[in-house]
Amino acid sequence: MGLFVINRIAELREKIKNFKREGKSVGLVPTMGCLHNGHASLIKASSERCDVTVVSVFVNPVQFGPNEDYDKYPRTLESDKELAEKNGAAIIFAPSVAEMYPGMNKFSDITMVAPPFHMVDMMCGKSRTGHFDGVCTVVSKLFNIVQPDYAFFGMKDIQQLYIIKKMVSDLNFPIEIVPCPLVREESGLALSSRNKYLSEEDREIAVSISKSLFAIQNAVKNGIIDTKKLFDAAITVMDRRVEPEYIEFVDRKTFEPVDTIKKPAIAAVAARVNSVRLIDNILIGE
Amino acid sequence: MGLFVINRIAELREKIKNFKREGKSVGLVPTMGCLHNGHASLIKASSERCDVTVVSVFVNPVQFGPNEDYDKYPRTLESDKELAEKNGAAIIFAPSVAEMYPGMNKFSDITMVAPPFHMVDMMCGKSRTGHFDGVCTVVSKLFNIVQPDYAFFGMKDIQQLYIIKKMVSDLNFPIEIVPCPLVREESGLALSSRNKYLSEEDREIAVSISKSLFAIQNAVKNGIIDTKKLFDAAITVMDRRVEPEYIEFVDRKTFEPVDTIKKPAIAAVAARVNSVRLIDNILIGE
């Protein structure tokens, strides 16, 4: 039925209301644009499950720290449209900052949705102060604007996924969160919009981040359950030009840190390659 | 059609879904129970405007401070049912704490909705740390559970009303907030569930709180616009046994503090009578 590109909240609401009146189910894929095959898999999952798929494209200033890459974050709406339509999206919602945050002067001027401290006092939350408050706030806004039946989140941003699931449960959003597997290049590198920042050489270095996670996965398969030893196994295969920020191990059910891998868990890493911050994670201990 | 009393979220959702399928509009009146004629006016306003009125009755632990009256807050569900039904409610939603906060151990364990600092760094927010975070969180939950078209809030809790309106706008809840006028006894005393704590003598003392607001209103009518003078006018008529916590003046549009009354404003007071904390407010400068 062709792709609608909508910039205004009121127009989107009207469109969604009509879809709902027709009894159609709505799926939301929230993105910051610069869509790649990871996003494609989310959009495909949504269009397989829902009658109407809305892809939001919004680089949310509230989730970026003052020294982060908000200004240079890649904006590629034209190719985003193509990828979204090809994978079955009915609507791209691409609002302006003024449309999403009218009259906002500073961070403290708006109502914020904040995840519980224990979920941000770890992994990316430690270095990216306020990031997940910004994520929860904009996702709440998108949930209220789109009112989807399902929302699709990639397991690449694994901490975000668990925080959003907690938010939906804590605040009783009438929405089912559908996690979708992380997608890798053939080299093993996890797909990310930030890969655009990498030179050819950076990219080869970055591949060793995923190698370090495969090393952990193999070590667990070989019976090593002590996370200190798993950490060492990871560091050994990581290119020395990678600057790791963390390698952490969490329970797959509770998302709490674990010292030994006795149950299904996740190994997650954040690292910089030539100042580009990348994240990746892998399921271990099934 | 008779009043349904519902304790479970899932059951309420099912009922609401059926109403919506029939094209019925839904109004929500969130309360902590112990309903009085102030609540009655909210329920009446809702049943006049909406096909179905849901009155929630939930004493929300998350909005009470450690030294506040959560435990002794009056619970009167039987008479609440009667008052709700008489004024046109279709449903009382009275969930348990475990239903609303399953598995919550402590305050920091859940996703919270926090109003902007400038709106809580004043009036009741100053003495009741975290109170409005608790209010915004539970109201967000109720909004997501009930999914009303309209929600009715009393102007008695004037700071709460402005904070909820800001939350709805900031987070794009698809809900219209309907403010309803404060209701007074013939004596002038603002109706409040906490009036139950007052002895006959306390009640006579408490009446002077409203008198102090009427004194402000009259002074403004007589051309006094300096809020310091208005403050003095209020204190003069207040019984000496009343312990005022604040008398503040805010712009009626922006809810920002004002020094002079040049535009429509609000005079608001919090005070203790024999350790019972009461609030009241009045519109000035029309």
Mind explaining what this structure looks like?
- The structure is a homodimer of 286-residue chains.
- The first copy, chain A, has helices at residues 9-21, 37-49, 77-86, 97-100, 117-120, 123-127, 131-146, 158-170, 200-221, 227-237, and strands at 4-6, 26-31, 52-57, 91-93, 112-114, 150-154, 176-180, 242-251, 265-273, 276-284.
- By secondary structure, the first copy, chain A, is an alpha/beta fold.
- Chain A has two domains: 4-180, HUPs (Rossmann fold, 3-Layer(aba) Sandwich); 193-281, Pantoate--beta-alanine Ligase, Chain: A,domain 2 (2-Layer Sandwich), CATH 3.30.1300.
- Chain A has a six-stranded parallel sheet with strand order 1-4-3-2-6-7, sandwiched between helices.
- Strand 5 of chain A pairs antiparallel with strand 5 (112-114) of chain B, so a sheet runs across the interface.
